[in-house]
Each structure stands twice: as C-alpha cells, then as structure tokens.
UniProtKB/TrEMBL annotation:
Regions crossing the membrane: 6-24
Name under which the protein is recorded: Cytochrome P450 85A-like isoform X2
Family: Belongs to the cytochrome P450 family.
Gene for this chain: LOC113869100
Cross-referenced InterPro entries: Cyt_P450, Cyt_P450_E_grp-IV, Cyt_P450_sf
Pfam families: p450 (PF00067)
UniProt-listed GO biological process terms: brassinosteroid biosynthetic process; brassinosteroid homeostasis; sterol metabolic process
Keywords: Iron, Membrane, Metal-binding, Transmembrane, Transmembrane helix
Record GO terms (molecular function): heme binding; iron ion binding; monooxygenase activity; oxidoreductase activity, acting on paired donors, with incorporation or reduction of molecular oxygen
Length: 407
C-alpha cells in the first residue's frame, strides 16, 4: 500500500472509531418507550455540559426535546423532568418505584449510610435516631437559641469594617453547624476541619473516576481525613465521663435499640449534616444579603419587622419561637431568595423497578432528575418572575392549599 492509501485507511478507522464511541451510549441504553434525548460519550456522557453549562444546558435540551428527556451524567443514565406537575407527582410518590438516588460520587464521599441515600427500614432507623434533635421541639427549645447566640458573637466585630460576604457566610454556615454538632472543640480545630472539608463539596458532584488529580479522588482522600478526625473525637468522648449538649453526644448516647447507630453510621450522618448546611446555606445567605442591598424598600420592611420584635425584648434575650412566628415578611424574603437563588437545581431519584412517567418507560436502575430551577422562573407560575418580590408569598399566609398557578 502506498503512503496516501495508508493515511486514508487510518483516517477511515479513526472516523469509524469516533462514530462508534459517539453512538456507544445510544446503543447501550437504547430501549423501546424511552424519552427522547442524547447520551453523549461512553463513561463521560454529557457530564461536562451538565456541570459547566448548568441552566443553559437544560434550556437547550428542553427546547429540543421537551420537558422530559434522557441523558447521561455523573456516571449514570438519567431522565430529566422539567414538568412542574410531573415533578410534584415524582416527589409525592417516592415509594412507588422511586427512592433517593444521588450520584455514586456523592454516595461514596458522604457515606453509604447517609440519611439522603438510604431508604426503607434503614432510613426509618436513622431518621428516628436524629428526629429528637432536629425535630420541631428541638428547633424551638435548643437549636434556635443556640444559633442566635452564635450569630450575635459572629457579628460582634463587623462594625466599621469592609466584609467579604461570600467568605463570611461560608464561615458562618460551617461554624454554626460545627457548634451544634461538636460544641466545645477549640477554634483551631474548627478552622483546620473546615480547610479539610472544603474538598468534600467539589468531589460529590464529579465523575466517579478515582485517579489522582480528579475532584472525586480528592473528595475520597478528604473523606478519609474527616473520618479519622471524627473517630478521634468519638474515642475521646467515650473515654470521658463528661456530657455535651450537642448532636454528636445525642447520637452516641442514644440507647433506644430501635434507633441506635454504630460509629460508622454516626460519622456518615455528621458528614452529611455539615455538607448539607455548608454550600447551600452560605450561598443562599449571601444572595439574601445581595437582594436586600439591591432592594432598599424590602430592606426597610425587614428592619421594621425586626425592630418591632426587638422592642418587646431585653438586650440579653435570645430569639424565641414566638418571635420567629412574627417574622412574616422575613419568611417572604427567605422564600423569594430560595426561588431565585437556590443553588440546588433539583433532586435525584432512582428507579427500583421499571417506572412509567407520562407514557415513557424509565428502566430500573436509572436516575430521575427532578429539575426545578426552570419552574422557579416560569412566567406562567410567577408574575414578573425575575423580580425580587417577597410580598408575593404574603398572599399565601392564610391559604390552606397554596395556589401555585400564578404567584
């Protein structure tokens, strides 16, 4: 063969290999009755667009395939739902073939026993073990006053200073969680723990490829360090007779056989508590500050509401549950911030059997991504959806069954 012929053969083989790779996922996951969509490359799927393009990726997919489509991201085939009614059905019918099904990377880094991953009898046992300290009674009697005292101390030296709100809200979210979980650990411990924990967040939403240099690898290595640190704290607690008014102590000393957790399960819940209240709470808090800054009239309404509550209290009094119930406008600000700026774009479920949704078949083992970001800004559901308007929520305060049709 001549050199040109060899070159042509190589190009032809390369083209064929490229075509096979491009269609591999399409063929592998092909099944009658599936929603429309594309599956991307083998292993990687469409993860790059899913993570980097975010809302733009979803808008393009929705324009091309409609409100229910298939894709492949974060190591799993998924069906993405952007239909408000279907999303509501999925979330209300979790037991009917759909259970929590977060990415493999999240499950392995947060722990296989974390409350967001398990279901059935194990979920019931873990939920029972933590309900006593995160339920309504605990929030009213312990968590709310403790958070108030922490925030008073945290804000104490902000006067006449330029503050990096993004940095401060991250510190606030992490340290208030640490105080509630392990109350008496020294500040250097908390600072070092936070620096270690930062890699957890980036690792949970990544391709589960465990090689050095990847976010997933760093996340797994960070988990090992966090687990080792928490084991030391637990061992120190077990060797001491002293008690602590924190979540770790309650988990360790729960003697109810129905809800008692072993050390591995306790550690998984603590990592999950810290993770769930870190990036989400800090970013949402930062955005609330931004919206208040950008909307002086809203800020003035919030100030009026809080100053009215403050006038009925002594300077040393902490916020009570009754005070919280009076914060009607503040709740509107919170709801509106969550609508516009919630960084959790949706929730994932996993099909435990073949499930039918809107006439399409979702195969067993596939993830279903209930995507809510687009519906939060749907002009059919919300009047003037891009406007920050906490008052839209006040109209619903006395309505038993909320009318989501046109807020």
């Amino acid at each position: 063969m001549s050199i040109p012929e060899i070159v042509y053969c190589i190009l032809a083989l390369a083209f064929c290999a490229f075509f096979v790779l491009l269609k591999w996922n399409e063929v592998r996951y092909s099944r009658k009755g599936m929603p429309p969509g594309t599956m991307g490359w083998p292993i990687f799927g469409e993860t790059a667009g899913f993570l980097k393009q975010g809302p733009d990726f979803m808008k393009c997919k929705r324009a091309r395939y409609g409100n229910l489509l298939k894709s492949h991201a974060l190591g799993s085939p998924i069906v993405i739902s952007m239909d408000p009614e279907l999303n509501r059905y999925i979330l209300k019918n979790e037991a009917k073939g759909l259970v929590p099904g977060y990415p493999v990377s999240m499950r392995n880094i947060l722990g296989k026993s974390n409350i967001a991953e398990v279901h059935g009898a194990l979920h019931k046992r873990i939920r029972g073990s933590i309900l006593s300290f995160i339920g309504p009674a605990a929030i009213r009697g312990h968590l709310l006053p403790e958070v108030d005292k922490f925030m008073t101390s945290f804000l104490d030296n902000w006067d006449d200073k330029t503050i990096d709100i993004q940095q401060k809200t991250k510190q606030m979210a992490f340290f208030v969680s640490m105080k509630l979980i392990v109350e008496n650990e020294p500040s250097p411990f908390n600072e070092a723990f936070k620096a270690t924990f930062d890699n957890i967040v980036s690792g949970t939403f990544s391709l589960p490829i465990n090689i050095p240099g990847t976010n997933y690898f760093r996340g797994l290595q960070t988990r090992k360090k966090v687990v080792a640190t928490l084991k030391e704290v637990i061992a120190k607690r077990r060797s001491s007779l002293s008690t602590h008014a924190d979540i770790l102590d309650q988990l360790m000393r729960n003697e109810d056989s129905r809800y008692k957790l072993n050390d591995e399960e306790i550690i998984d819940q603590i990592i999950t508590f810290l993770y769930s209240g870190y990036e989400t709470v800090s970013t949402t808090t930062m955005m609330a500050v931004k919206y208040l800054h950008d909307n002086p009239r809203v800020l003035e309404e919030v100030r009026k509401e809080h100053f009215a509550i403050q006038q009925s209290k002594r300077p040393e009094d902490v916020i009570s549950w009754d005070d919280y119930k009076l914060m009607v406008y503040t709740r509107g600000v919170i709801f509106e911030t969550l609508r516009l700026a919630n960084i959790v774009n949706g929730v994932l479920r996993k099909a435990t059997t073949d499930v039918e949704l809107n006439g399409f078949t979702i195969p067993q083992g596939w993830r279903v991504y209930v995507y809510t970001r687009e519906t939060n800004c749907d002009p059919f559901l919300y009047r003037d959806p891009c406007k920050f308007n906490p008052s839209r929520w006040l109209e619903l305060e006395c309505v038993p069954e909320r009318n989501w049709a046109y807020l």
